[in-house]
Amino acid sequence: MMRIAVCIKQVPDTAEVKINHETGTLVREGVPSIINPYDMHAIEAALQIKEKTGAGVTVLTMGPPQAESALRDAISMGADEGVLVTGREFAGGDTLATSQALAGAISRIGAGLIICGKQAIDGDTAQVGPEIAQFLDMPHISYVRKIIEVNDSLIRVERLMDEGYDVVEADLPALLTVVRELNQPRLPSLKGKMAAKKAEIAKWGAAEIGVSPEKVGFNGSPTQVKRIFTPEPKGGRKTLEGTLEEQLETLINELVEKKCL
Q: What is the CB neighbour count within 10 angstroms for residue 237?
């Protein structure tokens, strides 16, 4: 039976994101957390393959203990099990260190297909998926918008491009990163919620995934974020007043004056 590993990330709800202007870091305390939206489509893709082929689905994430709730949410949707890669040694990791840790966990799981969201909404780097594939020495296909065929030995997909799409085939094991166009994530079922409450979440540190502590977290990160800040608002805005007709006349005059019309 094929095993599918889905990499997810618990991220701050972007509607509630705040920045500590003194430290230049995100304020996570008291901010609601959600599963990264792109990763929801990765979970759904794995579940659809499971329904067609009988594959097993393992969802994994790297993060603090509270990230366990994201894994339980994924299990409530239909995933079979969850793995939390956690420990102080992983703190402060950049995309390379994170990929190294997740690759180690996936090696232990023994997955034949790995599915990730295109990118995380808190970092927007889109680097972790391809880097995991590099560490695992396997092919990867990014921006997958449709899965055409999958079996124990190969996968065929449509890859989103600027002007249309490519049809790409790869031997398994392989890694995919997916986009929103791929599917519509399902809602958890009552049975799934009950299963998620009872599920035992495996918790692995560096020793369990066979990765040196020097290769993960801050120690294994060649890059560091120096500052996070809110862009300064751009000026030059003007509020139009009056009736709709008066506003339209003012707008047209402004556009003509700026030689836009």
A: 6
Q: What is the rounded radius of gyration, in angstroms, for the C-alpha atoms of the chain?
A: 22
| DSSP SS3 for 197 | helix
Provide the CB-side half-sphere exposure for 222 (13 A, CA): 3
Q: Are strands 25-27 and 18-20 parallel, antiparallel or unpaired?
A: antiparallel
CATH number for the domain formed by residue range(s) 3-220: 3.40.50.620
For helices 68-77 and 190-198, what crossing angle results, to 10°? 140
Contact 132, 99 (CB under 8 A): yes
Confidence of residue 41 (pLDDT cuts 50, 70, 90): very high
| Contact assessment for residue 165 and residue 158, using Cβ atoms and an 8 Å cutoff | yes
Note whether 32 and 12 are within 8 A (CB): yes
DSSP E strands in 118-187: the ranges are 140-150, 154-161, 164-171, 174-178
Determine the Cα–Cα distance for residues 99 and 62; give it in Å rounded to an integer: 10
pLDDT, tens only, 47-96: 999 999 999 999 999 999 999 999 999 999 999 999 999 999 999 899 99
Between CA 55 and CA 119 the distance in angstroms is 25
**Of the candidates 166, 195, 169, which has an alpha carbon nearest to the alpha carbon of residue 78?**
195
